[in-house]
């Protein structure tokens, strides 16, 4: 990920800023589902972290099935993971080798996430965002992420449908997992992203930018004005909003 690319492309939001010009209008291109390219894959912080420790592409990986049985928490098998995700067998093998190198126990914890994001976003404080992101991956809330959960989550974020990505984003914003997003929860997530992007973000972010952003989101999303956003309100609003849809291309910039 080129940091200059990220800071210019993203204003710190996860799903785009309704107050800004849609990406499609800026660049004269219509939003389209991201291509399943290796280049797109390599823009993801988590993927770059994993693959940084693997053998060069093209090396013999025929023993990967054997390797799976040597780890304490082994994946359910490449074929099943390939069916569950949108990664190729070769990509899964590369991701697995890197995961095993970085996490010999077969599990990744929250401190590891914090380390990863502090390396990729040294200009800001990524601690809180890494905490929220880890909790979104840690579906059962036991404080550790297995390889299977890790790649299934990555597959949704990088190659999922818009609907799948939005459902994942709702889960991220729903911090206490009660099925609703409050204004406070959305503000906490937004602020953590702005903090991570740091003071060098272009354009320069104002202190009150996260709060303004959340206000605009809530005005659009909270259809019945009851102070919370349901999954239905979230999906309906996001999928009808051109600004949000166009920004889905930038979704992986903070993943």
TrEMBL record:
Assigned protein family: Belongs to the recoverin family.
InterPro entries: EF-hand-dom_pair, EF_Hand_1_Ca_BS, EF_hand_dom, Recoverin
Protein name (Swiss-Prot/TrEMBL): Potassium voltage-gated channel interacting protein 3
A GO cellular-component term linked to this record: voltage-gated potassium channel complex
Record keywords: Calcium, Cell membrane, Ion channel, Ion transport, Membrane, Metal-binding, Potassium, Potassium channel, Potassium transport, Repeat, Transport, Voltage-gated channel
Any one Gene Ontology BP term: regulation of potassium ion transmembrane transport
Record-linked Pfam families: EF-hand_7 (PF13499), EF-hand_8 (PF13833)
Gene this chain is encoded by: KCNIP3
GO molecular function list: calcium ion binding; DNA-binding transcription repressor activity, RNA polymerase II-specific; potassium channel activity; potassium channel regulator activity; RNA polymerase II cis-regulatory region sequence-specific DNA binding
Region (Disordered): 1-30
Species of origin: Aotus nancymaae
CDD domains associated with the record: EFh
Major localisation: membrane
Annotated localization: Cell membrane
Ranges for domain EF-hand: 125-160, 161-196, 209-244
């Amino acid at each position: 990920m080129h940091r200059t690319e990220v800071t210019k492309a993203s204003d710190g939001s996860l799903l785009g800023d309704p107050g800004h010009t849609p990406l499609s209008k800026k660049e004269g291109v219509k939003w389209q589902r991201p291509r399943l390219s290796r280049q797109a894959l390599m823009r993801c912080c988590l993927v770059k972290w994993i693959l940084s420790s693997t053998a060069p592409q093209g090396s013999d990986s025929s023993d990967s099935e054997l390797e799976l049985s040597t780890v304490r928490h082994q994946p359910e098998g490449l074929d099943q993971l390939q069916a569950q995700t949108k990664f190729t067998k070769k990509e899964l093998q590369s991701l697995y080798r890197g995961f095993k190198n970085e996490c010999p126990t077969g599990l990744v914890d929250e401190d590891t996430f914090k380390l990863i994001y502090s390396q990729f976003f040294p200009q800001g404080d990524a601690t809180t965002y890494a905490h929220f992101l880890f909790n979104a991956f840690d579906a059962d809330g036991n404080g550790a992420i297995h390889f299977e959960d890790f790649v299934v989550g990555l597959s949704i974020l990088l190659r999922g449908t818009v609907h799948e990505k939005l459902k994942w984003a709702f889960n991220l914003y729903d911090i206490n997992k009660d099925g609703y997003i409050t204004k406070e929860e959305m503000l906490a997530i937004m602020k953590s992203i702005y903090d991570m992007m740091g003071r060098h973000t272009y354009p320069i972010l104002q202190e009150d930018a996260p709060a303004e952003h959340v206000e605009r989101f809530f005005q659009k999303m909270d259809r019945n004005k009851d102070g919370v956003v349901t999954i239905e309100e979230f999906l309906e609003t996001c999928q009808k909003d051109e600004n949000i849809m166009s920004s889905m291309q930038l979704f992986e910039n903070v993943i």
